[in-house]
Amino acid sequence: MKTKFLILNCIFLLSIFFVSCKKESNKLPVNVPTLEVKAQNHNWYYFTENGFFPVEKPKFAPQCPSVPWTEAVRISSANSVNTKNGETQGFAVVNRLGILSFQNNKFDLSKDITLFSDKTAGNLVFYEDTPLFSVYKSTFFNDSIQNATYKNDNSLHLFLVQFDTNTKISYPIINCNNITNEENSEVTDFYWDGQNWTCSIKSVSNYKNNFSYIQWKPNIPLLSISPSNASASISVEESNVEKFRELQAQKDFEQAPERIKKLLSGFSNSKSFSIELKNIGGISPRNYQNQVATFKEKELKAKGILAESWSCILFEDGTLFIEGALPGKHILREGKPVAIRLPKLPGGFVYSDFVISGSTLYAAWEETDFYSIKRSGFLVVDLDKTLYNKLI
User: Per residue in 352-391, pLDDT tens?
Assistant: First the structure.
């Protein structure tokens, strides 16, 4: 209890600091052609524990209690993937709810109460165009992990899950007990580089919490593995915290791909920001940081997707940069960047992640309170009407 009190006290003090930082001006300077999303070109949706529903604006979404981000209904991870017919499909992991699938301007939710209702879900990656994600129970915020049955049944400690795009069902691939002998363990995070999976494992006991790190890779095709055969179908070796941190460390923005540096060249010398960059249909994201401002200025966060014919970056304030050509469309401004200002969110709200499917943009939004989340949902933007019908 004393440790938890100290942690919560630190969180409270830090929250005061960050609230004060929000008073600083953080609007991105944009020196490329900039478009506004018109009212007729977008629609809003909000989440509940039962699904998603349309709403006129996020501020009109029903109020809900503030809960830790690990327990909140929110889009925790999203990315797009190229389909075999040359189109782009999007997927999003909705924590505590299910998987959202986006196909052009159509979208649907595949709910899974059994899998999602009491677990934290995220870390979306792709293996042979199949969405994979991880689930775990937070030992700090989730009281259900103390349940005796849960502690004693290793089959309940799930880890890696695949989403079958045909059946719209999520299937476990590997449980935590397939990669560690420690009891009552959860894989709290992982990094996949395309071959090796490096995992952070938290083991809980009445005496202390212990972290360990392992690296594994499949000996047979990954999608043919299940918890029943996983232990005999993968190779596991020990890793360490230094390697895990190195894989997830923020690299200097100068090390980012050239297309991304070109996309953001208009302000990279004047603003502090960090980007979680994903390859379309790819491995775990890479992190880059552009640190140029004083300590008092809040660092803006962004998510990015790098595709073969286009790249896109969305900042939390709703400034979106895009270059290239979406599937079936002409190249924008001869390959030069274009900026879009998404509809402004109320104070305390941010844009958090996005996908593009066809010529439709889906941008996640959420109401934040430092480490907690209140309301959340997503915005649907018609890029045909916003982007391609303009002379730019």
Answer: 999 999 999 999 999 998 889 999 999 999 999 998 875 4
Amino acid residing at 277: L
> Distance between CA 99 and CA 47 in Å, rounded?
13
Measured CA to CA, the distance from residue 349 to residue 3 in angstroms comes to: 30
Question: Which residue, among 7, 11, 245, has the nearest Cα to 140 in the 3D structure?
Answer: 7
* Cα dihedral sign, 7-9-12-15: negative
Which of 163, 181, 184 has its CA nearest to residue 172? Answer: 163
Q: What is the pLDDT of residue 10?
A: 42
d(CA 285, CA 44): 27
Q: What are phi and psi of 34, to 5 degrees?
A: -125, 130
pLDDT score at 87: 85
What is the model's pTM? 0.89
Closest CA to 274 of 308, 249, 295, 299: 299
Residue 376 buriedness (CB in 10 A; 0-12 / 13-18 / 19+): buried
Could you report the per-residue pLDDT of 171-213, keeping only the tens digit for each? 999 999 999 998 889 999 999 999 999 999 998 877 778 899 9
In this structure, are residues 294 and 301 in contact, taking their beta carbons and an 8 Å threshold? no
State residue 23's pLDDT score.
Answer: 37
Buried b (16+ CB within 10 A) or exposed e, 58-95: beebeebeebbbbbbbbbbbbbbbbeeeeebbbbbbbb
The most confident of the ranges 139-153, 205-219, 278-292 is: 278-292
